[in-house]
Recover the amino acids of this structure.
């Protein structure tokens, strides 16, 4: 009975005793770890109390914030937990669609160029071919055939005109002479039909804005040979309207100044609607249709070259740096020299300007690449086709904003422009909605990667900085292209398809902003933003005029009250948009000044309608002009409507219309110190920040070649060339 069973139990007891002794020996060993968990567990007593509610636990960490309502605290805690992201963050990586197709370019390189040295030679050779092709095509576009009797055409900008707005041409327009018997060969770039005035421009009693400044031309039923335009029309826009050049390729031609003309037609031709004017103007011009001139704008060819070369580079490179920096460079110079160059005098001056902008742009480009997320987005990306389409394609779209986003009715993000331009506020609202949707989607992606909090902190710093800029007195915040790109780029630092698209678009914005407009300041003064818009200055109070009608001669006399302040020391009167009277007040302000204007019957025996506008003078600068009062053909006077109409000319920010051609520069323009300069005559082009003048060689048909005497001087960004022309049959030089 006690045999096997008893033996088994004895063995089990022995093993248990040995195990206990062994355990005791191990625990009591001086080097053995102390099993605190076991002892603590032995000391713990079962707790029958109910668990502490979660909201009370949360309350313990918010003792300092008891004044905050509990729902707000609970919501804040929930948001904080959500922003931290999932317990295990995931980095997004693009898995190529149709990988065999997208990996094919890399497979070709691995097969035929396995050695690194061969690939390096191919890479730099490819870039050299791109550069040489670009230079050769651009050089071919700089060549224009000489026009017989006129010489080589002068390159002009889309906004060049023969007349300066307001009183810029001086009394009776003398600073813009000659009015007739002169001309020159010109060359226009492409896409001038879209060049518009951005602030109201008065033409008689009309106010023109957001359309080309083209006044007159042939009617819709007559031929182009009868095209006569008012002198302040944009030359290139008028040439397109007349059919002399095309908008897609530009071209060259010859403009002839023909003096005073009346009754300018309104018509729509070749995509441009001209403006009518039913009175006379002292300077008019037409185009010489008999002239043979050949030139071509090669900007589209240069764009095609850069797009093709950059696309192949995107397909056959996997290194982020080897892809990004050549694309950035090629994009910059394509914009700067072809698709959207700034106003310039000649190619050397353009290159000088753009090289100065390019060097800091490359530094900023490196910061964008290494510190703002571009490297992170492109590293490890093997979806070659998607990279070329999404990143590079969007990059070109952003770089061509003057074409791709030209339909958006927003010129500048300023309160004045948004209120003035039709559709601007609606467009801005749509843009904000799109940005909010993009923001929400990017927030979700950053949360999944566990990087949301760091980026929210970064954008909080951006927001504080912008608020400070807005609150600074006497300064206005300007969000330029490049500023927008720098602000939004950190929000694209991940490898998703939407981020590829957004990032490429922003890089294009940055390149276009710097290449076209330069490093414009983020904070600008009201004067810099003013441009040629109204100044909201006091307007002269014009009394009822005294009219005397005669059979062949009639007069109208205007009187006005005293000036509104000591800073206004004179008055200017425009008749048909030409300054006909300028007077400065005497010390005796009790003398009521007046201005008498007389007119005779025209060639057809009828009086012509005339438009009068008045402005106070402050030194040599005019303030806002009144709206136009009309003295009609029958001698009846129509009072002007309240409010300003004519514009102050541009100061440091340039002049509306980019310039004028072949006229004298009157003294006292903004940016110059009167008394320290002499009057000079300049030949083209008033543009950009100050003037840059072309040296022009004039040759009249059948006459001697012009003798040039160049006198260059500078002042506040101004470079002017004096050109003296000896006319045939004259012993004294005349200015042209």
């Amino acid at each position: 009975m006690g045999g096997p069973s008893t033996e088994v139990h004895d063995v089990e007891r022995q093993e248990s005793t040995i195990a206990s002794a062994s355990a005791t020996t191990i625990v009591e060993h001086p080097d053995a770890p102390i099993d605190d968990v076991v002892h603590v567990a032995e000391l713990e007593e079962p707790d029958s109390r109910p668990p502490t509610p979660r909201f009370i636990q949360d309350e313990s960490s918010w003792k300092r914030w008891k004044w905050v309502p509990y729902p707000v605290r609970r919501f804040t805690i929930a948001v904080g937990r959500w922003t931290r992201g999932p317990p295990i963050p995931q980095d997004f990586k693009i898995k190529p669609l149709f990988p065999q197709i997208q990996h094919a370019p890399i497979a070709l390189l691995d097969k035929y160029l396995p050695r690194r040295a061969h690939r390096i030679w191919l890479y730099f050779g490819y870039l050299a071919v791109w550069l040489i092709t670009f230079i050769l095509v651009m050089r071919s576009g700089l060549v224009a055939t000489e026009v017989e009797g006129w010489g080589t055409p002068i390159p002009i900008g889309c906004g060049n005109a023969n007349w300066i707005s307001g009183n810029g041409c001086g009394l009776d327009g003398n600073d813009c002479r000659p009015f007739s018997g002169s001309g020159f060969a010109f060359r226009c770039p492409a896409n001038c039909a879209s060049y518009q005035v951005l602030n109201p421009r008065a033409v008689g009693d009309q106010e023109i804005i957001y359309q080309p400044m083209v006044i007159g031309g042939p009617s819709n039923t007559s031929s182009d040979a009868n095209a006569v335009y008012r002198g302040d029309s944009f030359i290139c826009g008028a040439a397109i309207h007349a059919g002399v050049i095309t908008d897609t390729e530009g071209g060259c031609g010859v403009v002839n100044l023909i003096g005073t003309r009346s009754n300018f037609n309104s018509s729509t031709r070749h995509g441009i609607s001209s403006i009518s004017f039913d009175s006379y103007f002292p300077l008019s011009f037409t185009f010489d249709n008999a002239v043979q001139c050949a030139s071509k704008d090669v900007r589209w060819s240069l764009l095609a070259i850069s797009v093709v070369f950059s696309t192949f580079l995107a397909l056959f490179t996997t290194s982020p740096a080897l892809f990004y920096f050549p694309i950035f460079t090629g994009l910059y110079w394509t914009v700067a020299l072809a698709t959207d160059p700034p106003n310039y005098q000649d190619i050397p001056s353009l290159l000088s300007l753009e090289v100065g902008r390019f060097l800091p742009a490359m530094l900023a480009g490196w910061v964008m690449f290494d510190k703002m997320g571009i490297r992170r987005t492109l590293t490890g990306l093997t979806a070659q086709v998607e990279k070329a389409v999404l990143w590079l394609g969007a990059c070109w779209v952003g770089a061509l904003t003057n074409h791709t986003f030209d339909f958006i009715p927003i010129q500048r993000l300023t309160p004045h422009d948004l209120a003035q331009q039709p559709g601007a506020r609606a467009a801005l609202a749509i843009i904000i909605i799109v940005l909010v949707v993009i923001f929400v989607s990017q927030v979700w992606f950053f949360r999944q990667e566990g990087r949301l909090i760091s980026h929210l902190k970064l954008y909080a710093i951006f927001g504080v900085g912008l608020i400070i800029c807005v609150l600074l007195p006497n300064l206005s915040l300007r969000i330029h292209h490049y500023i927008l790109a720098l602000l939004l780029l950190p929000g694209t630092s991940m490898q998703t398809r939407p981020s590829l698209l957004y990032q490429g678009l922003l890089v294009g914005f940055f390149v276009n902003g710097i290449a076209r407009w330069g490093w414009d300041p983020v904070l600008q003064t009201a004067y810099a933003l003013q441009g040629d818009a109204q100044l909201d200055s006091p307007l002269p109070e014009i009394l009822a005029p005294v009219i005397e009608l005669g059979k062949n001669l009639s007069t109208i006399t205007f009187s006005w009250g005293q000036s509104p302040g000591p800073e206004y020391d004179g008055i200017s009167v425009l008749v048909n948009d030409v300054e006909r009277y300028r007077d400065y007040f005497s010390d005796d302000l009790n003398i009521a000044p007046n201005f008498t204007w007389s007119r005779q019957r025209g060639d057809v025996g009828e009086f012509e309608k005339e438009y009068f506008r008045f402005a106070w003078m402050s030194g040599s600068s005019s303030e806002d002009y009144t709206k136009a009062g009309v003295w009609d053909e029958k001698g009846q006077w129509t009072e002007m409507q309240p409010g300003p109409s004519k514009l102050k000319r541009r100061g440091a920010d340039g002049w509306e219309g980019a310039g004028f051609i072949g006229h004298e520069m009157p003294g006292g323009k903004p940016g110059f110190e009167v008394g320290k300069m002499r009057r000079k005559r300049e030949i083209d082009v008033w543009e950009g920040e100050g003037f840059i003048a072309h040296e022009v060689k004039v040759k009249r048909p059948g006459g001697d070649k012009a003798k040039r005497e160049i006198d260059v001087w500078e002042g506040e960004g101004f470079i002017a060339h004096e050109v003296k022309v000896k006319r045939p049959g004259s012993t004294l030089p005349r200015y042209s």
About this structure: The two ends are 141 Å apart (CA to CA).
